Amino acid sequence: FTYETFFKGRKQEGSGEAIHLAASRGHVEIVELLLNRTAFVDSCVSRDLAPHYDVLHAAVFSEGHGGKLEVVRFLLERKATIGKNLDGKTPLHLAFQTGACKLIPLLQEEMEKSAWQWESELPSPLEMGITFGRMSQAQLSMTAPKTPESMRVFIHHDPDCIPRFLDHVDDAADGVSCKHLARHLQEPDLARLFCEAPDSAVALINAVTAEPECESVGWHPLPSRVSFAPHNGIDRVREWLNSPGPGDYLYAFYEHDIMWKYDQAEFTYPEWHKMLDWNRGRPRRDVDVRVCHVPNLINPAFFSSLMQASDVDDSLSFFSSRVVRGSIDYTFWTGACKVDLMQFCFSLWSLALLLTESWILVQVSDKFQPKDGEEDPNRRRLPEISVSRDFIGAKGLLDLVHEIVQILGCVAIGRWKDYLNLGNLWDLLRCFLLMALKINTGNRLVHVCVVFIYWCRLLEAITFAEKIASALLPITSLVRGLVPAFLVTLIGFLAFTHGVYVAEDTRREPKDAVFRSFRSLITAGLPESPPEDSLKLALTYISTILFTIFFLNIFIGVIGEQYTLEKQRCKRTFQKMRAASCLTFLLRVKVLCCNLMGKRSAEAVLLLSVLVSMGVQVLGLMRGGSLPYTGVTFFLLQVVMFLAAYQNPDAPWTGQNASKPYFLWLATPTGLGS
């Protein structure tokens, strides 16, 4: 037979044989008859005089409907070879393209027998199956080859298939396990998956976290029972501030080992194994020890994807994953906690300076009273000692340097756009406001803004105390839920203000009209006598009733509902807050040098810098003004303090350690224990 068709905008001619028609329409008896009558199984349909596809292609494609299993099996039994058509597609490509699920295992088995070598130029059969949309997610998951390539195809093209695919891999009896797939996952894979499909990412990360192999089960088995009692005084303070519940206990380690090692010749094991001891005291728990087989899981891209995923999944359910919790827990307590604690202490320090200066100025307020003929003191510039101005201005400049370092960290991981969000832009604005206190001396507006900034920072910076933050978060998170109710109230307020303004015979200043409306609507302050104008009287009654009954009840209902919702997920919200802190920390250590000195030496330098700063401040307060070059001195001392807080040469993200493979180990309770 011959045919004419239009392909890619041009006319094409071709020809074929009867066996191609018989195979494409599923007539196995006719195919067998033709093969017995001198037809060839490898004969090809031509396109523009060039061989295009063979009989097996025709049987699988079946004119776009997907072929019959009997015909394809018969052709393979008759030694039909698997090859490519002119478009580079194999029969397996066509099976995925047409959704012929029954043919896929048969063709995969035949291609494995022939040791078929795939070429990377053409999309894989699985990718083609996703693109053409003939197969359901369950079918794609069941028929996908159990290889790392399939995992990456699902990550990039259809991540919702991943949970079923992982179940299929786990149930398979051919020796391919999820932890083998994990070794081939690339660093951006998990980050991309968390951004697009958090539930699938959690399924993947949980599936590749398995019980480790034990080098010596007899001499050094995996611990089955562990004490979660504090190791030292710092751990006791940490436990008191966080008050973990029965299900919150967790040990997280980040080590080079992927096996539970034991040297049978020396009878020794890694030092960190001693942390999983059960003899220290209560609370003790039965534990499940697992290792995540994804290397170098803790990185800025991973935490950045967690923050993006929190915008996709409002329930924040993925923060309940023990792997996610473990990565946050390790990163925070190993590095980010010290920097956050420094920020919190600086907020208290700055507030103490502002309050001390205010108290001193009250004691000497007679010096600032205006003389006869002078302007109103409310319009004069604020008197000041300038110690707090120099210290806070220097801190604003240091915060700006921090933000620049964070931007460079985003650039270093190739995700500079991640910095462009409202939170980071607000941080930048705060830097300039703090510096403005030094530059724009005595400005009341700047002074008031700085005061509010530091008081609000006390609520933002409590990432090290879950006990306190969990009580505050449901309240501080109410603003998000109140935005719609506030908009409705604002529109109502503006509408009635405008209506009353128009109804008045005499026009007042707009600001006076707004003030009167605010007094009557928001505070329910009705005039002493009713207006004589009936229209204005009606508007007054209607607006007052609406604002005191309708809008007030809206706010009460929304506040109650939103508080309950935030209370239910406050643990996950707190994990999100800590993850944001870890992201900021990891982005900055990507740029900063964190191995200038040892950890203990850095702590000594930090303490010395604090004492010198306090000494300079005391001298300035005693003499009623700053010493020369105090601002520069404060800035240099603050730089030393924060650099010291980042120093930890043994941390996995420091220096040469960052290039070595690390694996996350977790020990989580399985029961209540004693």
Automatic annotation (TrEMBL):
Q: Does the keyword Transmembrane apply?
A: yes
**Could you tell me which residues the ANK repeats occupy?**
14-46
Q: Which parts pass through the membrane?
A: 445-465, 477-501, 538-559, 604-622, 629-646
- Entries under InterPro entries matching the protein: Ankyrin_rpt, Ankyrin_rpt-contain_sf, Multifunctional_ANK_Repeat
A Pfam family recorded for this sequence: Ank_2
Kindly indicate whether the keyword Repeat belongs to this entry: yes
* Keywords on record: ANK repeat, Membrane, Repeat, Transmembrane, Transmembrane helix
What SMART domains is this protein classified in?
Answer: ANK (SM00248)
What name appears for this protein in its UniProt entry?
Answer: Ion transport domain-containing protein
Q: Which organism is it from?
A: Alexandrium catenella (Red tide dinoflagellate)
